[in-house]
Amino acid sequence: MAEGTDDRALPATEELALARRALDSGELAHAAEHVAAALARAPTLPEVHETLAHLAAASGDGGVGLFPLQHHTFVGAVVARAHLLAAAGRPAEGLDLLVAATAHAPRADWAGVPWVTSPELAERLGPDAAARVLMQVCAAAPDPVPPSDRTALAAYLTLARNAVTVHPEHGLLLGTASALARRVGEVPLAVRWASRGVRATPSKMGEVWFGYALRSAGRTREALAALRRAVDHDPDDLAVYADIAGTLADHGRLAEALSWIERALARNPSFDCAVHTAHRLRFQHDGEVRHLVGLADFIRDHPDDSHEHSDLAECCRGRPWLGQLTPVAPPARPGAEGRPGPVRPTPQPPSAEAARRLRELAHPAWPHPPAAYDAAVGLATLDLPDLLGLLVHPPDTPKTALGQVLSGQDPALWVRCVQVWACLGLLHHRTDEPWAGSTRRRVLVDLARDPDEAAGEAALFALVTAAWVDPSVRPDVAQVVAGRLAAVAKAARVQPVPAAPSLAHLALATPDLDRDTVILAQELAGLRGGRRRHRLRRLLRRLLHPLRPRLPGPPPP
What we know:
Layout: H1 12-24, H2 28-41, H3 46-59, H4 75-87, H5 91-104, H6 114-117, H7 119-125, H8 127-140, H9 154-166, H10 171-183, H11 187-200, H12 204-216, H13 220-233, H14 238-250, H15 254-267, H16 272-286, H17 290-301, H18 311-316, H19 352-361, H20 369-375, H21 384-392, H22 401-409, H23 411-426, H24 439-448, H25 453-469, H26 474-492, H27 500-508, H28 515-524, H29 533-543
Region (Disordered): 326-355
Pfam families: TPR_19
Protein name: Tetratricopeptide (TPR) repeat
């Protein structure tokens, strides 16, 4: 379905005037184009529907043929065809098209017209057809619908009320009506309808709809009981197990939640909903990043999941380096870590095109590391001098709300954003080169030793991101991160290192990091008490030994 509108679009009244002029001249196809455009701009305006009726009368066949469905059909034409089908006695087909328009542009009130909200429509449709329409609406709507968008679904809720009034004991209709009511914030009504539905026709889906309604009403104990009854109806529907586990976890009952998700995995270890929920709950249980890395691996290896999941993004949101930058640490005194940094020539400023692309991408937050990697592909065609130039000569903040906040409150954070995204861009440089001897690895490892702690952390984050998306590089990246952390920990024994907590969080986001380094990172991040200083000294002695490269190719410069 095509939008078919732009900034030059005429107001609905002008489109109607052009439609009437074409209609008077007998140019029906031309008139249909203007009516469709007017419908797209004002779908409930009575004058638009009056003109559509005149066009239908003039066409001789009800006007349906003037609005054919093609591969890319303008949404206004789809809605016009829907109204004409209803007028021709085919309301079910018309509703299907209105729902398609709602899925395409959910904020427009496509269905807010008398024939949809009339009680007669519910009688003509029958309960099964009405339930099917409501299911289509629910599939097209978010759960829950944002309050600002609920007006556009009011006509469908009226249709549900009318249908339930005519068919008060139809279980499927009551369940789908409850699902719609819940989505648009009518929770008490959703509970009543779902309760009537399971009494009229006990079923798995009836109990699921009832459980969801009760959960939205805050009646958790009853919601869980309904979902358990749904499992009794169909023990093989593992999505319900995941719902039960998620509900239990949301209310602090993590052990029970894990038990339910393990039951689901025992039945099918690769069922996507169960796998996503299991990794999320395990991470909530012990905070170990290996669960999130395992989930990222599953997502990469199973691109055709049954539906979109947000578990990985929810777990990474707001967490240092997993989902956002850490605050900028005060600059350290040169040589504070006990070794000089590499001496490199200062790169030239980046090109205007490189600055423009980075300005469009740079942001202090991302859904999760693989998503950051994917977003940085927009920098893939930049050459190496441009990417290095961005690190040293960051462009001005963008002329956006984010840019205004960063420039007005924390300009240093913008520089940090630029460094992080430039380094992510380096991950896409010459990807045809094998990792061990690649330019991208050599440059990032070199940058990771930079005395500028911010640039060094940005390079390390890029390396960690590479490990998230490519399991084959994980041993190498873990070794680089462990060595860097050990050096910082050694320096911290002599004097404070302001960047140590941030680097520690970066280490904790690293796949396949050895257990001793994880414990050291937890110490430096302040996640463990100071009662094990002897253990920390032992870890330092072990980690500060020279590390031999685990991958073939030249050693880091």
